[in-house]
Model the fold of this input.
Amino acid sequence: EDQVTQSPEALRLQEGESSSLNCSYTVSGLRGLFWYRQDPGKGPEFLFTLYSAGEEKEKERLKATLTKKESFLHITAPKPEDSATYLCAVQAAGGGNKLTFGTGTQLKVEL
Amino acid sequence: GAVVSQHPSRVICKSGTSVKIECRSLDFQATTMFWYRQFPKKSLMLMATSNEGSKATYEQGVEKDKFLINHASLTLSTLTVTSAHPEDSSFYICSASGQNQETQYFGPGTRLLVL
Done:
């Protein structure tokens, strides 16, 4: 059974204080690993897809990396508007487009 | 691009009534749509997967006669919660993906409250 574990559950940062969120996964053949951002009361917003170990993708202050066992979402010099829950999900080869989600990291960036 | 809408955004209904939620892909053809349920401070739980023109595939533990899913066109899927009860109160979110696309794009969600 595919599993995704995210840590920490919650993270409080000061504006400008860089940090990383972790996503550990076990999957029977990784087709893709996805990062989403979810604001309260909203649906998840797509951020990145990573396909193979060593791959990296960047978007503004966010950078996602992937190894064979985990993915990191690095947040550089965060701003209050980066506050949200960040969700990680895996898609298994042969599983269609089905996603298995982690429970998310709730990020709060304070002034 | 890749915009998905849901309607209604919030609905309150009496116990025993049925509620229909619509999910539309606005700028692409969604060959596959997914329905999720999310409890407060919990992650998304997949309820069912539907392909256009086919019967939905339900996850284990999800009652297909209670949660009716229709995916009649490449831009519209509906979820009907039949004979709703208070325990069905939740945040329901749909997503859609196009042909040859692995990425799921999510709608804004529907908050259902059953009194």
DSSP finds no helices and eleven strands in chain A. Chain A touches chain B at residues 31-32, 34, 36, 41-46, 49, 87, 91, 96-99, 101-104, 106 (CB under 8 Å).
